[in-house]
Amino acid sequence: MNKVTVGWFEIAVDNMDRAISFYQKVFDCLLHKIEMGDFQMAMFPGEGGGKGAEGSLVYNKEFYKTSNIAGTLIYFSSEDVSIELAKVEEAGGTVQIPKRLISPEYGYMGVFLDSEGNRIALHSMR
Questions:
Q1: Measured between alpha carbons, how far is 60 from 99 in angstroms, rounded to an integer?
Q2: What is Dmax (Cα atoms) for the chain?
Q3: Which residues pair with 12 in a beta bridge?
Q4: Rounded to an integer, what is the distance from CA 44 to the centroid of its chain?
Q5: End-to-end CA distance of the chain
Q6: What's the rounded mean pLDDT across residues 70-93?
């Protein structure tokens, strides 16, 4: 069986500027905003060249909807899930699942709602 890797992801938002502020605060990064007609995107920083998954926030009233209970669940990698979870509420989100051990061999996870109401997960080995 071949490996399947994530090449790109898009997180739907209702308010691009609010979402950019939220993710920049939680992950201590800068997002690059671009506009393409009816579409707005804000790119997460990445390494490029196929290393890791890269992606963006995306806004378009017709094609993208946020969801706090359904849809794709993205897991961002972390050194320690508790670091980002500690920033979520101050940035305008809600922790749904606090840091939790999956198992010793699979590490830890946590889930939060972002400023737009999307479920987003975190994973770390410690």
A1: 32
A2: 47
A3: 58
A4: 9
A5: 29
A6: 95
